[in-house]
């Protein structure tokens, strides 16, 4: 969790929980739970580990520690943080029978995988640590030591940013919030105005905003306008998918892919223009020839002049503009080099256009699956897979049961059910020598044919017919299906699940399998 989000959460938690009585502290492997009472029991979870976070919880989980029993009955005086940073302080006051008030503190250091929670007594001595992590190797950090906060790694912040032009240099920012701050700035704000806007969002706006790929930031931006309250955000953080029902995930994903479609369509138009320009390399080459063959006649002339162009059928007169001060021989060399570069680029641009066309086909496939998804759970799974990016699970984690399975004479065919299972099937389950099938240029399931014997033509046609049956054109009389070895199928880096490009493929045109045929081929 980033420092900006924590700053907003701390403000909201302090407003809700300050003055509450601490009932108990629960401990799990990665979290500390605070059970508090004020007009009813409410809880706060401080989560460490791989995904450190701070948020309200529905219940107080975990066991109690004898070391923390002394805090039971204490009053939560305040929740605050080192401004814009990931160090949160809970101040608790406990009155002893003698009347003396002892001040305890819970110091939550939510700093990546080195996150920890320290509990200190009235003298600032550490009484308890949730784990052994130490976010600052230069300090002594252990039970019985005087608590010292980890060093801050950034000096500038939203209020103090003089002579700073990068949000990445400000405390509390990380790549996602930097990206959305830049988008705000590009929408017409100056750097200083953007800082003021974000700062006011942290201290005056209680909402959290969901980005197009399902992540949450603490301020509204052009690409993060859907708002949730802290309670809803807490349910997202705790893994409760119910909060994002009612089509919210569907809207987010469709919005994301529609933007991708617009982006790649515009890129295709740019590349087609580049291809058109590069395809005119012969014209540039002929200009070089025109100059080279007329160097003697030019003899120092500049401006527009008529020159002889020699062809197999005779001589043509062509006009050519010779810039003033330009050496004709050197200019001819430049034109030859430019023509050669243009000619070389033709193949590269054509290949890039083919690749972008496959991207666009992939986008249409994502939109098709999203619009025809069986439910929100599949869409939430797609969002989760997108968040992981190119980090994939080990093959041992991928179970066959999540795929549709069909028995063919040569072996088994496995088909994905949606974008996520298509991705897992192809890139986490399939082996390089397996056969991969996909309907040509239309949305369809990905199918992997794992053979025990060499497949014959009939096996290929049956696998293609199954693929066609799970395509957008399943109701058509004929569907063309591409197939190749899985090793020729690649996922471009940074693209969402289900996106592929492929080369060295064959194609067959088949009639999609009927429901009866699919039923007869179905296997466990």
Please specify the SSE layout and strand pairing:
Elements (H helix, E strand, L loop, with lengths): L2 H15 L3 E7 L3 E7 L3 E7 L5 E5 L17 E7 L5 E9 L5 E9 L6 E5 L5 E4 L45 H12 L4 H14 L3 E3 L5 E2 L8 E3 L1 H8 L10 H31 L2 H12 L2 H4 L4 E9 L2 E9 L5 H44 L4 H13 L15 E5 L2 E5 L3 H11 L5 E5 L7 E5 L5 H13 L9 E7 L3 E2 L10 E2 L3 E5 L4 H7 L3
Antiparallel strand pairs: 1-2, 2-3, 3-4, 5-6, 6-7, 7-8, 8-9, 10-11, 10-12, 13-14, 15-16, 16-18, 17-18, 17-19, 19-22, 20-21
Can you characterise this structure?
The protein has 4 domains: 127 residues, ibrinogen binding protein from staphylococcus aureus domain (ibrinogen binding protein from staphylococcus aureus fold, Roll); 78 residues, no CATH class; 128 residues, Helix Hairpins; 132 residues, no CATH class. The chain is flat. The chain contains 12 helices and 22 strands. About 1% of the residues have low confidence. The chain is an alpha+beta fold. A 6-stranded antiparallel β-sheet has the order 15-16-18-17-19-22. It has a 5-stranded antiparallel β-sheet with strand order 5-6-7-8-9. Strands 1-2-3-4 form a 4-stranded antiparallel β-sheet. A hairpin with a 5-residue loop joins strand 5 and strand 6. Helix 5 packs antiparallel against helix 8.
Largest sheet: 6 strands, antiparallel
Major beta sheet, strand line-up: 15-16-18-17-19-22
- Domains (count): 4
Radius of gyration over all CA atoms, rounded: 32 Å
Q: Give the structural class.
A: alpha+beta
**Cα shape:** flat
- Number of helical regions: 12
Average pLDDT number: 88
Q: Any low-confidence stretches, pLDDT <50, length ≥5?
A: 392-396
Strand content: 15-25%
Count of individual beta strands? 22
Distance between the termini: 42 Å
Question: Helix share of residues?
Answer: 25-40%
